[in-house]
């Protein structure tokens, strides 16, 4: 389904992603963990075609998405929706219009200029908001919502694209624990109920272990771990984050019992 092959991104003398390789054979919720600067965000931006690669290929359903240009590239970005840490909503615009922005790539320039949406799209947007538990906020300005609610609006906007893959770049890093749980629960349900692939950069090990089917650990641009949550022991975590990272010494190979905050 998805093959990332020898993916490398250099910025001058610095290598942000260093020969990354992994294969996803069926939809899963995949967490990517590692220190700040490990290459997590760059990897997702390459996958979405927001950043070009230096070397390597990304094959999705047999097609090299890094070779796409023009309308085909925009089509891929619609199939591969992106969710950001800071939501990227239009603050003074109402919630439902923000969600409808997920259809921009499929609309004419004239419809976009005059903010015209088909009735069925409006109904679909409200249905998605209802699914995420925030339909009552559809007419409110986005800036009036809490951070957790805004992130659910961003998820709704991504779902309006009807994507095959959702990429989430630190989707809960700026949220309090309660809202972080709500957002992660939503991403998990989207994967399970819709059969969509979700790839999320995460900043705590307990979140990765609780929600993900598979975890990829990155260090200095390289993938140094690729396995199940059960395989993510304290020793493996030190390999990812460095020997100076502080973890629960009593953790076993099957559990890390306490929430473990680590550098993003």
Walk me through the structure:
The chain is of the alpha/beta class and 264 residues long. It has a single domain (2-241), classed as 3-Layer(aba) Sandwich (Rossmann fold), CATH 3.40.50. Helix content is 34%, strand content 23%. It contains 9 helices and 10 strands. Strands 6-7-8-3-9-10 form a 6-stranded mixed β-sheet, with helices on both faces. The chain has a 4-stranded antiparallel β-sheet with strand order 2-1-4-5, with helices on one face. A hairpin with a 2-residue loop joins strand 1 and strand 2 (14-24). It is globular, with a radius of gyration of 19 Å. The two termini are 28 Å apart.
Short description:
Strand 1 (2-11) and strand 2 (14-24) form a beta hairpin. The chain has helices spanning 40-47, 70-79, 95-100, 109-113, 119-131, 147-160, 177-194, 205-211, 234-241, and strands at residues 2-11, 14-24, 29-33, 55-60, 63-64, 80-83, 165-169, 197-201, 214-219, 222-227. Mean pLDDT is 89; it is low at 248-264.
User: Per CATH, which architecture?
Assistant: 3-Layer(aba) Sandwich
**CATH topological fold name:** Rossmann fold
Radius of gyration: 19 Å
Number of domains: 1
CATH class: Alpha Beta
How many individual helices?
A: 9
Strand numbers in spatial order across the main sheet? 6-7-8-3-9-10
Strand content: 15-25%
CATH homologous superfamily caption: P-loop containing nucleotide triphosphate hydrolases
Average predicted local confidence, pLDDT: 89
SSE succession? EEEHEEHEHHHHEHEHEEH
- Contiguous low-pLDDT stretches (5 residues minimum) are 248-264
Task: Supply the helix-strand structural class.
Answer: alpha/beta
Helix content: 25-40%
The total beta strand count reads: 10
Give the termini separation: 28 Å
Shape: globular
Mind summarizing the main beta sheet? 6 strands, mixed
């Amino acid at each position: 389904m998805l093959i990332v092959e020898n993916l490398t991104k250099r910025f001058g003398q610095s290598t942000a992603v260093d020969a990354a390789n992994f294969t996803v054979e069926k939809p899963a919720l995949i967490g990517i963990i590692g220190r700040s600067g490990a290459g997590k965000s760059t990897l997702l931006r390459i996958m979405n075609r927001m950043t070009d690669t230096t070397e390597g290929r990304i094959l999705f359903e047999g097609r090299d998405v890094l070779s796409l240009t023009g309308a085909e590239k925009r089509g891929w970005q619609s199939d591969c929706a992106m969710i950001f840490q800071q939501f990227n909503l239009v603050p003074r615009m109402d919630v439902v219009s923000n969600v409808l922005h997920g259809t921009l790539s499929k609309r004419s320039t004239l419809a976009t200029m005059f903010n015209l949406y088909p009735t069925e799209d409006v109904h679909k947007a409200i249905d998605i908001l209802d699914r995420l538990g925030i339909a009552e906020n559809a007419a409110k300005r986005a800036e009036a919502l809490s951070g957790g609610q805004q992130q659910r609006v961003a998820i709704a906007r991504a779902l309006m694209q009807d994507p095959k893959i959702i990429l989430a770049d630190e989707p809960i890093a700026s949220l309090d624990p309660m809202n972080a749980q709500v957002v992660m629960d939503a991403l998990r349900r989207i994967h399970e109920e819709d059969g969509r692939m979700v790839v999320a950069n995460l900043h705590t090990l307990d979140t990765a272990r609780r929600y993900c089917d598979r975890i990829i650990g990155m260090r200095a641009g390289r993938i140094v771990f690729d396995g199940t949550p059960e395989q993510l022991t304290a020793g493996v975590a030190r390999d990812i984050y460095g020997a100076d990272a502080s973890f629960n010494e009593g953790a076993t190979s099957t559990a890390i019992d306490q929430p473990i905050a680590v550098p993003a």
